[in-house]
Write a structure and sequence with these properties.
single chain, 207 residues, Rossmann fold, globular, 54% helix, alpha/beta
Length: 207
């Protein structure tokens, strides 16, 4: 957490079909039941400028987008979201729950696309204004199982080959290995109720 921030910042990460969005929303519901001031966001998006960038990033028509352009667009969407929503909310003492954050760019554009991971991390520090999640839940699931859960209508990133998504998963697990205090790996093939129970256990200790 950056200096001057009083709130709690919780992020959910994971590959396609891992159930992270569902668990993020369930956690928000639980925290609200405790009377917490909770804000749910998703990346990329959640504010006007970032939603426009999201459409560009996920549009299947943009298949010729360079890896560098892709990385910088994700960072641009994040920069606006941090400036407009995340930083002000945390300064006010709110709990922010985010469906994806900087780890996604490291995993997808770094490990997945073969981008410069050190550059992504360094740029990320500036873009995120030094803000880091207090805890991150990594919903871990094999790429094959994840896509068996997906409906039709895959976006530009989801359409990539299975070996790409395997590299993304490997990247996520590498991040978790490097930062075990922050990143908690959750087996996403367990029942929804069991997963929620594990997540609430971690969050209750934080609270």
């Amino acid at each position: 957490m950056a200096q001057g921030m009083r709130g709690l910042f919780i992020t959910f990460e994971g590959s396609e079909g891992s159930g992270k969005s569902t668990q993020a929303r369930l956690l928000c519901r639980y925290l609200k039941s405790l009377g917490k001031d909770v804000l749910f966001i998703r990346e990329p998006g959640s504010v006007k400028i970032s939603e426009v960038i999201r459409k560009v990033l996920l549009d299947v028509q943009n298949e010729n987008m360079s890896p560098e352009c892709e990385t910088l667009l994700y960072m641009a969407a994040r920069a606006q979201l941090v400036f407009e929503v995340i930083a002000p909310a945390l300064r006010k003492g709110k709990t922010v729950v985010s469906d994806r954050f900087l780890d996604s760019t490291i995993a997808y554009q770094g490990y997945g696309n073969g981008g410069d991971i050190d550059f992504i991390k360094e740029l990320g520090k500036k873009v995120c204004l030094g803000i880091k999640p207090d805890i991150t839940f990594l919903m871990d699931l094999s790429a094959h199982k994840g896509f068996s859960r997906k409906a039709k209508g895959l976006d530009r990133i989801e359409r990539r080959a299975l070996y790409y998504h395997n590299r993304v998963r490997h990247g996520y697990l590498k991040i978790a290995q490097e930062e075990p205090k922050r990143v908690k790996v959750i087996r996403a093939d367990a029942s929804r109720e069991k997963i929620q129970e594990i997540i609430l256990g971690y969050v209750e200790r934080l609270l």
